[in-house]
Specification:
Length: 491
């Protein structure tokens, strides 16, 4: 599918489906649209009345116009109230139109949406993202594609001529989001620590960035006892992945991104019981997926920022070599951890990754992790929890997420709750009481960062969706990639 830019007036566009955005308070047809309606004998006015169309955000209606016309169908898409227009509204409206056009077997689509905040580049980028994210289909594991129907071949963004750079940017970001989606959706017999490392290697080779893969022995030398404790029951070797993007000149700033990379989480000897969703635990590398997706996008965008992409990849399995509940592990900063629950494994792998990132001398570290069910209980499935003691990093991430259209909500880092992790025998336990479980998890992570500004995103909810939601189809969402890219690009 090719996205094209043109300033063709509505009345002159020819093709299968012409889609037009309308605001909730202005469903009357004016200007070009009134003329278009006239050209087709008032069909739009009739359609709007018949369907009682009020232009609620992302609602769509469409009609066939008379045979032999230069266009076959007209799609109307609602944009909600004009003063509430966000980039995300355009992203989702474009996605809704793309879904209708595809269903209607349109090969070419013309799309006319208003500018967001008078900014054509941001507008074009958001629309191009929405269309491409909505049309993405994962057919890797089907022996035959289910829908063999016509594909959309071209989309003309009307009124956005000259915005080629914005489309390129959208394509780079979408390639990262779709990589994350593919990594998360693939089952644990496909995406393993080995294949995650291979994916990182492929990014490094294709886009010319640095890579280092630390093997088990390398991690032993660094004293990564927490990460290796989790890895010890797996038949697969752990892989500590470190990709580095360096700009040509002096970097404006240096950042590190860490992703939890559990390619499967059985729970370990505290095995996940009935109803715990063990069969969905291939998603437990959603943080690593977003990290690698962001690496792919950043390596193409080439900002003047140095970025480290890190994941301590392994599985949490059971075997004769598995951690016993109660084992004491020593992390690479010398701190000792009593493992009172082997299912709180993510924080153990992140502990050593945080110590490693903290030593890189970067300006900020952010980790993304499908860390706790408690965070999903707190915020629901669409919203990530943001935990950081640093107000500046918090507002950077809030802004990055807002324009990306990815939802997050800042949670408190209540120091007193660390008492819940007190151990009688080691420096800390890895698990606290049931209540406030996402907060104690974040407080645990904080123990492994010295002075570097740091934030943790608990993405256990939003990396997956059970049903179609905006431009996301049921399945992996690629959550985090767009926020990370925006954050890296921000001042
Ligand atoms: N990977 C899970 C968290 C998770 C839950 C991710 C649901 C995605 C969806 C994590 O390793 C885990 O098992 N957390 C435990 C922590 C508990 C043992 C303190 C949890 O949330 O129950
Ligand atoms: Mn677990
Ligand atoms: Zn886990």
């Amino acid at each position: 599918m090719k996205i094209q830019l043109s300033n063709t007036p509505l009345l002159e566009w020819a093709g299968d489906s012409l889609a037009i955005g309308l605001f909730e308070d202005a469903v009357e047809l004016t200007g070009e649209l009134a003329k278009l309606d006239e050209q087709f004998g008032g069909v739009l006015k009739e359609l709007i009345a018949e369907e009682e169309f009020t232009a609620k955000a992302y609602s769509t209606i469409f009609t066939r116009v008379s045979a032999g016309s230069p266009i076959r169908k007209i799609i109307l898409v609602g944009l909600g109230k004009p003063d509430a227009l966000k980039l995300e509204t355009l992203r989702r409206a474009a996605a809704a139109v793309a879904r209708v056009a595809k269903k209607q077997k349109s090969k070419n689509l013309g799309l006319s949406l208003p500018l967001w905040d008078n900014k054509p580049a941001e507008t074009a980028q958001a629309i191009a993202e929405g269309i491409q994210l909505a049309l993405y289909q994962d057919i890797r594991f089907k022996s035959e594609p289910e829908d063999k129907g016509a594909k959309i071949e071209t989309v003309d963004l009307l009124g956005l001529a000259g915005q080629e750079a914005a489309i390129t940017r959208a394509n780079q970001i979408v390639s990262g989001v779709n990589l994350a989606r593919e990594l998360v959706a693939a089952p644990a017999n496909e995406v393993t620590p080995i294949t995650l490392a291979e994916t990182a290697q492929a990014i490094a080779t294709e886009h010319g960035i640095e890579i280092q893969i630390l093997e088990r022995e390398d991690c032993e030398k660094l004293g990564m006892g927490a990460f290796l404790g989790v890895a010890q029951a797996s038949d697969l070797p752990p892989k500590f992945i470190h990709l580095t993007y360096k700009p040509a000149g002096t970097p404006r700033r240096k950042l590190a991104i860490i992703g939890k990379g559990l390619t499967f989480d059985s729970g370990g000897l505290n095995i996940k019981g009935a109803g715990s969703g063990i069969e969905t635990m291939k998603i437990d590398m959603g943080g690593a997926g977003a990290t690698l997706g962001a690496a792919k996008a950043i390596a193409q965008i080439k900002p003047d920022v140095e970025v480290h992409f890190i994941s301590a990849a392994t599985e949490n399995m059971i075997s004769g070599r598995a951690m016993h509940p109660g084992d004491i592990l020593k992390a690479s900063n010398g701190k000792t951890i009593e493992v009172n629950n082997t299912d709180a494994e993510g924080r153990l792998t992140l502990a050593d990754a945080l110590v490693y990132a903290d030593k890189l001398g970067v300006d900020a570290v952010i980790d993304l992790a499908t860390l706790t069910g408690a965070c999903v209980v707190a915020l629901g499935e669409d919203i990530a929890g943001l935990f950081t003691p640093d107000d500046a990093v918090a507002s950077q991430l809030e802004q990055a997420a807002e324009s990306a259209g990815e939802k997050l909500w800042r949670m408190p880092m209540e120091d007193k709750y660390f008492e819940g992790l007190k151990s009688g025998i080691a420096d800390m336990k890895n698990t606290g009481p049931r209540y406030g479980g996402s907060i104690t998890a974040a407080l645990f992570l904080k123990q492994f960062i010295k002075d570097t500004p740091w934030a943790h995103l608990d993405v256990a909810g939003p990396v997956w969706t059970d049903k179609e939601n905006g431009y996301n189809s049921a399945g992996a969402t690629g959550y985090g990639v767009r926020t990370l890219v925006n954050w890296v690009m921000s001042d």
